Amino acid sequence: MPNLAWNRLLEGNRRFVDDVPQHPNQDTARREALSNDQKPFVTLFGCSDSRVAAEMIFDVGLGDMFVVRNAGQVIDPVTLGSLEYGVEMLDTPLLVVLGHDSCGAVTAAYDSYDSGETPSGFISDVVARLLPTVARARKNNRTTINETVAQNTMDTVDKIMQLSTIIKTAVDEGRLIIVGLTYQLHDGHTTVVAQYGGDEAAVSNYTS
Q1: Which of 62, 78, 83, 180 could form a disulfide with 194 if both were Cys (CB 3.0 to 4.6 A apart)?
Q2: How far apart are CA 206 and CA 3, in angstroms?
Q3: Could you tell me which residues are beta bridge partners of residue 181?
């Protein structure tokens, strides 16, 4: 089941990249069928960036994807609870963490790390949560913003596994695959940067 969900997601991204989307499950019949229940096949945690609309990138429709988004895909208790809801209550067999190049939140943290200055308001809270990732990226010789985005995606996947017993148990029992992807804005391609569970060869060697 998790591998089937992964393959379905990849097929949708390929259609998006090739500019042949099917726009499935977006008609009146689908809307009416979902009025009392939902059964998404994937939970996705991504950035709020307006250029990274998950349902479009993976060419899915209503009821296919349980989406959680915030700036820089920052982990906090509410986010973890939302992801656990997708995995445990909705029984999604796939959890995707989606980072993207030129991420504004990561860029803000990257600049703050170098300048020692933080943005005003609650944006500073987002930056503060991302600063450890910037430091880790530098330590690992990932010095560009997009390399830092990849580090953040990997770190987020690791944090989910470390902090959520519900999600870790689902992975350990073979009910769930977690995949970290980075998305390229200019061409729509995605690249695997992290994985827990599933067929490692089939997942980790994939680039759309």
Answers
A1: 180
A2: 13
A3: 98, 192
